[in-house]
Write a structure and sequence with these properties.
- The chain has 8 helices and 9 strands.
- It is α/β, with parallel strands linked by helices.
- It has 2 domains: about 140 residues, P-loop containing nucleotide triphosphate hydrolases (Rossmann fold), CATH 3.40.50.300; about 80 residues, no CATH class.
Amino acid sequence: MNILEIKNLSVKYDKIQILKNISFSLKEGKTLALLGPNGAGKSTLFKAILGLVDYEGEIIWNKKPKIGFVPQRFDFDKGVPMTVKEFILLHANSNWNFWAPSKEILKNIKKHLKYLNAEKLINKKIGELSSGQFQRILIARALFGKPNVLLFDEPTADIDVEGEMTIYPLIRDLSKKLSFTPIVISHDLNIVYEFADNVICLNKKMMCSGAPKSVLTQDQLNELYGEGVGFYVHHNHHK
């Protein structure tokens, strides 16, 4: 079943064409990766899906969406004495008492942190976390809202290679376990090749669409990014 269909989507900012006639469908539970150079319109596509920008065309949900979002970066003052637990509580929409959350809420937070192997961080200050740890907290925070679609804007942008190799398989495993559909913006061709079920190449318009092994040819990458861009395939983890 297609959870999302996008038909002839176009976005302009002050008469400047950012996206033109983008059309694709997304099957429920399948991982979609968005590729393209900087300025290609990937983040704008996310904003259109989130309803944050005006667009022409159609965005059709075949199932009521509950969308979660994991940003590329989250700027905050590292001196703020906020714990991981408080950070997640602030994000959650509910009428519970922030200063005295119930045992049930705390149990729920611990459960979501455990999904990310981060339950030991619950009382740690946000400013003390490494970039990889904080990325896991952002994902746990997004999952706390029980989304059925989860948007990731370059989830490993500030993480080392070892972190990349754990975050992507984790997202894929959690999508199966918690029944959400991931849409990921990524610049890492190597990871996308193994991690994504489908890929869309964007540069203001659709450049390619399909399974990574079918569409990510060297010729296609040259057209998308310019000459000299290549990738190798990791073989140390599996779908």
